[in-house]
Amino acid sequence: MNEPFKPLVPGHREATVEVRRPIPLAPVPSAPLVPMHPGTIPSVTSIVLSDGRVVTGYSLEPAKPEPVAGKPPVSRAAVNIALGGIGFGAVCGGLFLLTAFITALTALITQLITLAAVIFGGWVAVQVFSASGHSGGNTFHIRKAVFKRNNFRG
Fold this sequence. Notes:
Blueprint: E1 44-48, E2 54-58, H1 76-129, E3 139-142, E4 145-148, E5 151-153
Antiparallel strand pairs: 1-2, 3-4, 4-5
């Protein structure tokens, strides 16, 4: 009954594996019959199988599960509290995003103003230090006043 296992793939070294098959147990003697009240003995049923054998036994009612207790309804206050918590979380998230957007927008505007100041300052510097055709001095006009190297003529 027990035989060594031989691999099917040629070229592999053979490993001896012992294959064990289950051995059927000896039949157990049946339990002694207990006398029952005649009203509790179920009816006997016989069934003919497809191969012609007849199986006879007691017909039993299928076990019925106990009814499940209905869930108590959820109170309206609990539902309102849960929805309020969800709404509060959504509002907090929205306010956080709004704050982050405003902060980013403020940084962008600050950078644009700084860029404009640098460009305008460079333009002013070019105007002040560039050579103009007037009597050898650098001229810069502010509100109709003329500045020429340390001389003011209004």
